[in-house]
Amino acid sequence: MQGIYRSGNMTDVDGKSAAHTIANMAAETPVVDARLQNGAVETHCAYCALQCGMSLTVDGGESSVEVAPLDFPTNRGGLCQKGWTSADLLRSPRRLTSPMIRDSRSEPFREVSWDVALDVVADGIRSTQAKHGNDAVAVFGGGGLTNEKAYQLGKFARVALRTSNIDYNGRYCMSSAAAASNRAFGIDRGLPFPLPDLAESGAVLVMGGNVAETMPPFMQHLNAVRDAGGDVIVADPRRTATADQATLHLQLMPGTDLALALGLLHIVVADGHVDRDYITSRTTGFDDVWRVATQWWPERVERVTGVPVAAQRATVRALATGRAGRGAVVLTARGAEQHSKGTDTVTALINLSLALGLPGRPHSGYGCITGQGNGQGGREHGQKADQLPGYRKIDDPAARAHVAGVWGVPPETLPGPGRSAFELIESLGTEHGPRSLLVHGSNLVVSSPRSHRVADRLAALDQLVVCDLFMSETAALADVVLPVTQWAEEDGTMTNLEGRVIRRRAAVQPPPGVRTELEVMADLAARLGRADGFSADPRVVFDELRRASAGGVADYSGITWERIDSEDGVFWPCPSEDAPGRSRLFTDGMFPTPDGRARLVAVDHRAIAEEVDTDYPVYLTTGRILQHYQSGAQTRRVPALTDAAAEPYVDIHPDLAARHGMANGDLVRIVSRRGDAVGKARLTTAIRADTVFMPFHWGGEQAINRVTNAALDPTSKMPEFKVCAVQLERVDSQPAMEPSGAVVAGQA
Ligand SMILES: Nc1nc2c(c(=O)[nH]1)N[C@H]1C(S)=C(S)[C@@H](COP(=O)(O)OP(=O)(O)OC[C@H]3O[C@@H](n4cnc5c(=O)[nH]c(N)nc54)[C@H](O)[C@@H]3O)O[C@H]1N2
Ligand SMILES: Nc1nc2c(c(=O)[nH]1)N[C@H]1C(S)=C(S)[C@@H](COP(=O)(O)OP(=O)(O)OC[C@H]3O[C@@H](n4cnc5c(=O)[nH]c(N)nc54)[C@H](O)[C@@H]3O)O[C@H]1N2
Ligand code: SF4
Ligand SMILES: [Mo]
Question: What is the pTM of this model?
Answer without folding.
Answer: 0.94
